[in-house]
Design a protein that fits this description.
single chain, about 450 residues, alpha/beta, Beta-Lactamase, Rossmann fold, seven-stranded antiparallel β-sheet, seven-stranded mixed β-sheet, disordered N terminus
């Protein structure tokens, strides 16, 4: 239970005379006028569902969740929290209490409480355990009822460097060399939901921007948080075009062009001219499952300039997120020779690996006679065995031979992957095994993170 102040008015499911504990969360609706937001909050504090509405969010923050998912059906409400990338099911709510809590959130954010089909979006700020948070709410109708998703983000990012995200020193140095290079194109990529916005931000913020002028060009509808020391230029549909904006920015003679989307033939041609004739540099990004596919997607999006793009490509970065083992309770074990051979680890190179400490479920916490026994649960990870997340990175360096291979095998990506591996490229499997050998995660977690999505 989250400790906070007491409110004498009972919730809908409280018996007469009970006091309901309300988490100490102050809600500041965003996108709503200040006076209106204050009035809405005062009114919502009188609603029966107010304690439950705050408790759902407070419990998620307490468990380090970054998402809350509520699925409303005729039977009730299923609540899930996503912790370290894994969905955990919370106790279900009956429909009356679920509706009461949702009513509070829709009202406090200035949304329409009676609308259960059309999409609605709202955002609010709050503080919990001396940390400021920005939480977005999205509700929309689904065939079985309504789905509500809370997205939880820190107001100030915690991750400052690529090393904080888990990038190895060798990869970091090579990648920074690409980002700080000249006369080339670098591709940053990741699968959907695998942290691309964060890696994109860190990649740009940690590049050398103090002796070179970096500019970002994108549609205003895609605007994200400001990136330190990168000058941003946006065009608006119906008002300007990316071609016209690129020409205006080009005249300012920047050193590096940052184009989150590179799929306009005229802009690509202009960019290639800047790279080849003016020694400029460029960075783009795509959503892709691995580095090879990231390169191919950039090329497919620019069929008229395939040879030109391949000629200037310097490399592609891709990543996968996985959970870190809890440092307080992870358990070492000695791998068998058979396991080491299966993992392609030379005998004697690794003497121990680690696994998570996962307590048995409550119904199995009994002795031989069936009597309940107390099992100590790690206070840091709360028995999850993992605490926080890290990323595995694969960095594909593109040299003259690799460029020729890309042009020859564009329609044969699997053969291109084999060729890259033969030349020493380390993929996610090899990087995952190395992370296990360093005690950062477990073999089970690597297998879970790398298994193909259904």
């Amino acid at each position: 239970m989250i400790f906070g102040r007491k409110k004498p008015k009972p919730a809908a499911n409280a018996s007469k005379g009970d006091e309901v504990e309300i988490p100490n969360l102050e809600i500041k609706a965003m996108g709503v006028g200040k006076d209106e937001a204050v009035g809405l909050l005062i009114a919502c504090k009188q609603l029966p569902g107010y304690p439950l509405a705050l408790t759902l969010v407070a419990n998620a923050l307490k468990s380090r969740a970054d998402r809350i998912l509520m699925d409303f059906t005729a039977q009730g409400v299923v609540v899930r929290n996503r912790v370290d990338g894994v969905w955990e099911t919370s106790p279900a709510l009956d429909r009356a209490n679920g509706d009461a809590a949702l009513l509070v959130w829709k009202k406090v954010l200035g949304l329409n409480p009676t609308e259960r089909k059309a999409r609605q979006d709202g955002k609010f700020a709050t503080s919990f355990r001396d940390t400021d948070w920005i939480i977005s709410l999205m509700s929309t109708g689904v065939p079985n009822g309504e789905r509500v998703l809370f997205t939880i983000d820190r107001k100030k990012p915690v991750l400052k460097t690529l090393a904080d995200l888990g990038m190895r020193d060798a990869i970091e140095q090579s990648f920074k060399g690409m980002m700080n290079g000249h006369k080339g194109l670098v591709v940053v990529s990741a699968p959907a939901t695998q942290g691309l916005p964060t890696t994109w931000r860190l990649a740009l913020e940690n590049a050398d921007k103090f002796v070179r002028d970096w500019v970002l060009i994108d549609n205003i509808k895609n605007q994200e948080a400001d990136i330190i020391n990168v000058t941003e230029y946006f065009y608006e549909d119906g008002v300007d075009t990316i071609e016209a904006l690129f020409e205006k920015v080009r005249l300012k003679q920047p050193d590096v062009f940052v184009l989150p989307i590179l799929n306009n033939a005229d802009v690509t041609e202009a960019l290639l001219n800047q790279i080849n004739k003016e020694d400029k540099h460029a960075v783009t990004r795509v959503v892709a499952p691995d580095a090879i596919e990231a390169i191919l997607q950039v090329l497919r999006a620019n069929p008229k300039h395939i040879k030109g793009l391949v000629a200037v490509m310097q490399g592609a970065l891709n990543q996968r997120l996985l959970r870190r083992l809890c440092e307080s309770c992870k358990q070492p074990y000695q791998p068998t020779p058979q396991l080491l051979q299966k993992l392609n680890i030379p005998a004697g190179r690794v003497t121990k690996l680690y696994k998570p400490t996962i307590p048995p479920p409550p119904d199995q916490r009994v002795d031989a006679k069936g009597n309940p026994i107390e099992i100590e649960i790690c206070k840091k990870c709360n028995g999850r065995g993992y605490f926080g997340r890290m990323a595995l990175f694969e960095l594909l360096n593109i040299d003259a031979e690799m460029r020729q291979a890309i042009l020859k095998m564009m329609d044969k990506p699997d053969e291109l992957r084999k060729y890259a591996k033969q030349r020493g490229h380390l993929g996610f499997f090899e990087e995952g095994i190395l992370a296990c050998a360093l005690g950062l995660t477990s073999l089970e977690e690597v297998q879970r993170a790398l298994q193909p999505k259904a």
